[in-house]
Amino acid sequence: NTSQTIYDLIGEEKIRLLTYYFYQEVSKNEALKKLYPDDLAPAEERLFLFLLQVFGGPETYSEQRGHPRLRMRHAKWKIDAAMRDHWMNSMLVALDQVELETNIKEAMMSYFVKAANHMINHE
Ligand code: HEM
Questions:
Q1: Residue pair 68/51 in contact by the 8 Å Cβ criterion
Q2: Per-residue pLDDT tens for 87-108?
Q3: pLDDT tens digits, residue range 43-86?
Q4: I need a labelling partner for 73 at 20 to 30 A (CA). Which of 28, 34, 43, 121 fits?
Q5: Residue 1 Cα, ligand 1 centroid: separation in angstroms?
Q6: What's the pTM value of the predicted model, to 2 decimals?
Q7: Which of these, 12, 32, 31, lies nearest to 22 by C-alpha position?
Q8: What DSSP assignment string belongs to 13-45?
Q9: Residue nearest to ligand 1 atom 42, measured at CA
Q10: Whose Cα sits closest to atom 4 in ligand 1?
Q11: Which CATH architecture best describes the domain 8-118?
Q12: In the chain, domain spans
C-alpha cells in the first residue's frame, strides 16, 4: 500500500503545533479548564502522540497508553453538546493557526467533528 497518510503529507511538526495551539485555547477556556489537570503539558503530549497515530504516523501513543478507547477514557467527564462545542471551537482555532492545504485541513476537520460528537456522553 503506497497511499500517503495525513502524517506523511504534513509531518510531525505541524501536528506538534496543532496540539500546542489547541492547549493554548484550552488554557483560556474556563469551561474546559475545569476538566483538565492543572498541568496541561502531559495532556498536550498525550494528544500529540494520539494524533500522530490517528493521522498515520508512529504508534507511540498505543505503546505507552494501550488501546485508545477514547470514549471510555472520557466517561469520567460530563461531555454535553456545549462542552463538545468548547472543545471543537478550540480545535478549529488551532487548525486555523497551522499552515495546511485546504483539502488536508478539511479532512482533519471532518475527523475532529466526528470524534468530538462521539465523545458526547450527556444530554
Ligand atoms: C484526554 C476532554 C474530545 C482525545 C482528555 C482529558 C480531558 C478531555 C479533560 C484529560 C487530559 C489528559 O490528562 O490527558 C475532552 C472533551 C472533549 C474531548 C471535553 C469534547 C468533545 C476529544 C477528542 C479527541 C480527544 C475529539 C480525539 C480527537 C483525547 C486524548 C486524551 C484526552 C487522546 C488522552 C487520553 C489518555 O491517554 O489518557 N480529553 N476531550 N478528546 N482526549 Fe479528550
A1: no
A2: 999 999 999 999 999 999 999 9
A3: 999 999 999 999 999 999 999 999 999 999 999 999 999 999 99
A4: 28
A5: 31
A6: 0.97
A7: 32
A8: HHHHHHHHHHHHHHHH-HHHHTTS-S--HHHHH
A9: 47
A10: 47
A11: Orthogonal Bundle (1.10)
A12: 8-118
